[in-house]
Write a structure and sequence with these properties.
Radius of gyration: 21 Å
Order of helices and strands: EEEHHEEEEEEHH
Strand order of the largest sheet: 3-4-5-6
Number of helices: 4
Distance between the termini: 43 Å
CATH architecture of the largest domain: Roll
Shape: elongated
Helix content: 25-40%
Number of strands: 9
Largest sheet: 4 strands, antiparallel
CATH topology of the largest domain: PH-domain like
Structural class: alpha+beta
Length: 179
Amino acid sequence: MPFSFLKKTGSSSLKNEKRYNIRVEEITINKIEWSAPEYDHKEHSTDWFWTMGLITLAVCVLAVWIRNYLFAVFIFISGCCLAMFNIRHPQEISFIIETEGITMGRDKYSWKNIKSFDIKKDGKNPKLLIQTSKYFLPVYTIPIPANLIGQIRESLLKFVPNAELEESKSMQLMEKLGV
């Protein structure tokens, strides 16, 4: 068994899911640090913003015409948020993998809260997918430098199993739309 230091505990609601207790005090890894922008920023032309504004305005007018005022307010606020989100530049987030867990910016996740991981190399930027025990947003997508892939995989395998994970459909859609 590749995870000989892990003990299988309890039964799981999913047939193939395995839960493990990890004795972290027995395992140490070298600290791995890198930083990356929180998302890929794409510059949009003024035509994009005009188109976005006109679509937002048209849908708002349609919503008012059918007397759905709450929907009109929702669309207007959504259009403004989308425009503001595309104007601002992404922050640089620091990532740290260490013996205690994974730190993403200000958030720290201990190994007991991480179920599995996967590294995707498709496209120009490799990504680390982390599955947490959270119900809402259980899979995090983290951009990683290509030169750290082997070191990250080796370190993570000491704590959590490698599993086939998929990036959320909403993330894939937003990347395709360039938002």
